[in-house]
Amino acid sequence: MKGIDLFLKKLNYFDKQFELFINQNNDHLLVAYSELCELIDDYSSFIINFDNEKHWSNISQSNEIISLIENLRTNSSVCVQIIEKYRAFVLEIENEEVTDYFRNIEDCIEKQFGDVQITSQSKVLLVGSGAFPITLLMVAERTGAQVFGIDIDDEAVQLGKHVVNQLGSHLSIQIDKKTVGELTVIKQISHIIFSSTVSSKYDILEQLYDLTNKDVLIAMRYGNGLKSLFNYPKQKVDATKWRIMENIKHPQSVFDVILYQKV
Q1: Strand, coil or helix: what is 139?
Q2: Residues 94-147: pLDDT tens digits?
Q3: In b/e form, how buried is each residue of 162-191, taking b as 16+ CB within 10 angstroms?
Q4: Other CB atoms closer than 10 Å to residue 153's CB: what's the count?
Q5: What is the CATH number of the domain that holds 191?
Q6: What is the rounded CA–CA span in Å between residue 65 and residue 72?
Q7: What's the CA gap between 82 and 76, in Å, rounded?
Q8: How many CB atoms neighbour CB 218 within 10 A?
Q9: What's the first-to-final CA gap in the chain, in angstroms?
Q10: pTM for this one?
Q11: SS3 assignment for 186-222
Q12: Residue 142 contacts residue 171 (beta carbons within 8 Å)
């Protein structure tokens, strides 16, 4: 029981630390930015630690534990958004380091669609592009594809456009505050990536069935088990509409990816 007690103690520690950063005022947060990066990196390492996965399978799913898991998922996501916005604000600082968390994300981008390659003829949509749209930049830079990003956060959209202007003005990248139903190019989209922290991603997937073309390929980032502390887990889909093409596991990543295509 000692191992499980320490495991739960660590979860509660992370939750309290996330709350602390979220409730700080902006001026103090800028000073504590490096500490927040270290916390997120520590949290990422905790999630991909195999020993912790064993403890996870042994904890009881009481209401208290379920509430803690939901808090951690929400608060860690908010803290990542804070880091993204800070990175966008200080983009001009050349020595700004890439944290382990963002390096982890970058390492997974190339494996996003498994054997299905994105080409210069592709049109790629990222749902939940965020303030520092690294996925859009890397996909556009490495494939020459036309890429689109949407987000519901006004500030994230504006900062995302700023980042693209600074780092990818030569690339075909468009970011908007729109829903999938408001995108005029939705029928031409060939690949769609869902950020793992989009809470309504399966509701949006349901909408996409009628909006998209018959060959569209969906890459849904998700986290089950211990990874659900950082990501919304996989859900069942309507088997008459969507089929699973591939379930891509990334043991050393904070999320896995499941590929869907229309039946």
Answers
A1: helix
A2: 445 545 544 555 555 555 665 567 889 999 999 999 999 988 988 888 889 999
A3: bbbeebbeebebebeebebeebeebeebbb
A4: 17
A5: 3.40.50.150
A6: 10
A7: 10
A8: 26
A9: 47
A10: 0.88
A11: HHHCCEEEECCCCCCHHHHHHHHHHHCCCCCEEEEEE
A12: no
Alpha helix segments (H runs only) across the chain: 2-22, 26-31, 33-47, 50-56, 63-89, 100-109, 134-143, 154-167, 201-211
Q: At which of 65, 82, 100 does a domain end?
A: 100
Q: Are 219 and 194 in contact (CB under 8 A)?
A: yes
The answer on 114 and 201 residing in a single domain is yes
Radius of gyration for the alpha carbons in the chain, expressed in angstroms and rounded: 19
How far, rounded to the nearest angstrom, does the alpha carbon of residue 211 sit from its chain's CA centroid?
A: 23
Please check whether residues 53 and 87 belong to one and the same domain.
Answer: yes
In the predicted model, residues of the chain with pLDDT beneath 50 are 93-95, 98, 101-102
Task: Check residue 99 and give its pLDDT.
Answer: 53
Of the candidates 199, 206, 136, 201, the residue with the CA atom closest to the CA atom of residue 172: 136
Establish how many alpha carbons lie within 13 A of residue 156's alpha carbon, considering only the half-sphere containing its beta carbon.
Answer: 22
Contact 193, 209 (CB under 8 A): no
Domains of the chain: total: 2
Look up residue 128 and give its DSSP letter. S
Q: Go through the chain and tell me how many residues it has.
A: 263
Q: For residue 115, what are the domain limits?
A: 106-262
| 249 and 186 assigned to the same domain | yes
